Amino acid sequence: MFHHVVSFRRSLVLILCTILFLETQADSDICKICTCYSLTTSVNCANRNLQSIPQPIPTNVEYLRLGNNNIATIKEGAFTGLSNLKELYLSYNKISRIEKEMFQGLHNLEKLVLGTNNIATIKEGAFTGLSNLNYLVLGANNIATIKEGAFTGLSNLNYLYLSYNKISRIEKEMFQGLHNLEKL
């Protein structure tokens, strides 16, 4: 009986080591370009002169910094599988538009920083599915138009930063549903 327990424990340790090794191998690609911290729950890709979001991003990432790069567009599905992501920094890039459902699947995202880009329009449904988002920075862009329904579903949003844009008109329904908004 004792032999079976020892054998089981050895097998369990071997399986766990294999899983950790495979996860490290999968994460190593992004960690060659970016700096990975604490078993890749935090990835810093800032100031890397990136033109696109590096892939694959480990699914256990909670904090992702992509600021100060040359990212102009975000491809569909760039954030697929990142349901653990809590904070996403995309400031100081060249992003020109936010497409509908661009951040789909980021159910746990709490903080999204898109300041100092070239965003001109925020389309309806741009932030669909970000029900836990409480901090959104869109300042220092070229935003002139915010479509009705752009902020739909952001019921937990506390902080919305829109300063230093070209907004000349605010529609009556623009902020509908933002019941927890404290700072604008």
UniProtKB/TrEMBL annotation:
Cross-referenced InterPro entries: KCNMA1_auxiliary, Leu-rich_rpt, Leu-rich_rpt_typical-subtyp, LRR_dom_sf
Q: Where in the cell is it found?
A: Cell membrane
Task: Name the keywords, alphabetized.
Answer: Cell membrane, Disulfide bond, Ion channel, Ion transport, Leucine-rich repeat, Membrane, Repeat, Signal, Transmembrane, Transmembrane helix, Transport
GO process annotations (BP): monoatomic ion transmembrane transport
Q: Which GO terms describe its cellular component?
A: plasma membrane
| Bilayer disposition of the protein | Single-pass membrane protein
Q: Is Signal among this UniProt entry's keywords?
A: yes
Where would one find coiled-coil regions in this protein? none
Signal sequence span per UniProt? 1-28
State what protein this is by name: Reticulon-4 receptor-like 2 isoform X3
Organism name: Octopus sinensis
Q: What is the lineage of its organism?
A: Eukaryota, Metazoa, Spiralia, Lophotrochozoa, Mollusca
